[in-house]
Amino acid sequence: MGVTEVEPLLTRLTGDEKHAPSAYSTLDVLWVLYDRVLDVAPDRLDDPRRDRFLLSKGHGPAAYYAVLAAKGFFPHEWLDDLAGPDSPLGHHPDRLRVPGVEVSTGSLGHGLGLAIGTALGLRAQGLTGPRVYVLVGDAELDEGSNHEAIAYAGASGLDSLAVVVVDNRSASYSWPQGLASAFTVHGWSATDVGGRDQEAIYRGLTQAHPGRPHVVVAHVEQKGS
Amino acid sequence: MRQAFIDTTTRILDDNPRAALVIAEISADSLAKAFADHPERAFNVGIREQLMIGVAGGLALTGMRPIVHSYATFLVDRAYEQIKLDLGHQGVGAVLVSVGASYDGSTAGYTHMSPMDVALLDTLPGWRVHVPGHPDEVVSLLRAAMDDDERVYIRLSTKVNAVAHADGEVVRPGPGRTVVAVGPMLDPVLEAVRGLDFNVVYTHTPRPLRVDEGAILVEPYLEGTSAHLGRFDSIGVKRVDLHRYGSPKDHARWHGLDAESLRARILSLPG
């Protein structure tokens, strides 16, 4: 079972047969998360002990829907009617409509704050097992709300939190010291990986980071290239 | 009212394991005991109001019941999109408790005023709004708000009525037209209609609003905030940035909400 099984689902979702799966910047990261990292399952949607994955970068969720469908969270038929009037699947995901979707996103810069609250809430209830993962885009980090969250998560040593930044260089202004520096300055641990190298993504996401939150910067092809 | 909020919140955190507290520096010193006793459920996120609401949304997603507190202008105006998306759109609730109602922070200027907070929340579905007029009302409203998962806004003021009242109470029965006073507007309204035959009703819960057709509604926030909810006359804070300091009493006069101006205004309305 590999990421190739997602390909027909992506085609089914988008009706687009021209683009290879590599056109989807988040696909490999999402596949590694759902295939090897996250402790989640369609029959444990409300299990308080499940891991949480928050897709903060809610636009362009085709790869997310395809991976969720491949993992059995909802029927494949749903993929045939993207953003239709009766479709649960829109161009931004809705947690009240799609099983397995933890947060409704679309407006950029909301996932990290929700993830910190989720991590704090789990810890407050003695649930120290579950981990909280957030996917953000590099351009999404323009939003100031992320920097409120990054600073606070670092200051409070929130080590159940891991962020993966899918960097397709879509931001108009790059980070002179590297994107990871936006996190490390606040005490996060960080690692850079190739965003198509599933083994490296897996190692990055599962790296131990006691006492501090962790960021994985996954570099993929430049948007539009 | 602020002290009643501090004391009640501190006790709620002691008694209710589902309760959480999120602030952005405002009232951190007053809430020191809550932070010391419950570090796992009380969070000061620094001067970060977007994060304050986002964290509350995340806490609620795990089943906790967060109390979120700041000045109205930072809590509601500044974090409006987080309130819309991180609470409402996620299908979760929180208890937002503000201070600095309308022009309570008059000496600080317009940057610290929010007469538009209730109007902003009115653009969003599902908010219950409490505007207590007395510290004793704060205690019961806050405790009740912790017992459900709804989206609740409690608007505290430094302006206080002499005694607490029940919601919907006919405070001064009269044969004439009904005047509904919201929260701290009650005492100025009672003084304004002294010797006249108006029927004065009190509410500390303007959302959901219960006002009969033809009444006069006196609200301590932006005039017309409730006008979309029925056919009645509305009196409230004027839609103007005065660029002035002074006391809340001065601002009440400038906005026509002191007893003398209210009396003239009420009497000017067609019967």
How do the strands and helices of this protein lay out in sequence?
The complex is a heterodimer of chains A (225) and B (271).
Chain A: H1 7-14, H2 27-37, E1 52-55, H3 62-70, H4 111-124, E2 132-137, H5 144-155, E3 161-167, H6 181-184, E4 189-194, H7 198-206, E5 214-219
Parallel strand pairs in A: 1-2, 2-3, 3-5, 4-5
Helix pairs in contact in A: 1-3, 2-3, 2-7, 4-5
Chain B: H1 2-15, E1 19-23, H2 32-37, E2 42-44, H3 49-61, E3 65-71, H4 72-78, H5 80-89, E4 95-99, H6 117-121, E5 127-130, H7 135-145, E6 151-155, E7 170-172, E8 178-182, H8 186-192, E9 199-203, E10 216-222, E11 233-237, H9 248-254, H10 259-268
Parallel strand pairs in B: 1-2, 1-3, 3-4, 4-6, 5-6, 8-9, 8-10, 10-11
Antiparallel strand pairs in B: 7-9
Helix pairs in contact in B: 1-7, 3-5, 8-10
Spatial sequence of strands, sheet with the most strands of chain A: 1-2-3-5-4
- SSE class of chain B: alpha/beta
Range of strand content of chain A: 5-15%
What's the end-to-end separation of chain A, in Å? 29 Å
Strand pairing plus helix content of chain A: what structural class? alpha/beta
Low-confidence stretches of chain B: none
Order of helices and strands of chain A: HHEHHEHEHEHE
Strand line-up in the sheet with most strands of chain B: 2-1-3-4-6-5
* Number of distinct beta strands of chain B: 11
Q: Radius of gyration of chain B from the CA trace?
A: 18 Å
Radius of gyration of chain A: 17 Å
Q: Describe the sheet with the most strands of chain A.
A: 5 strands, parallel
Helical stretch tally of chain B: 10
What would the average pLDDT of chain B be, to the nearest integer?
A: 98
Q: Which bin fits the share of residues in helices of chain B? A: 25-40%
Q: Which stretches of chain A are low in confidence, meaning pLDDT under 50 for 5 or more residues running?
A: none
Q: Termini distance of chain B?
A: 35 Å
Q: How confident overall, as mean pLDDT of chain A?
A: 95
Assembly type of the shown chains? heterodimer
Order of helices and strands of chain B: HEHEHEHHEHEHEEEHEEEHH
Strand content of chain B: 15-25%
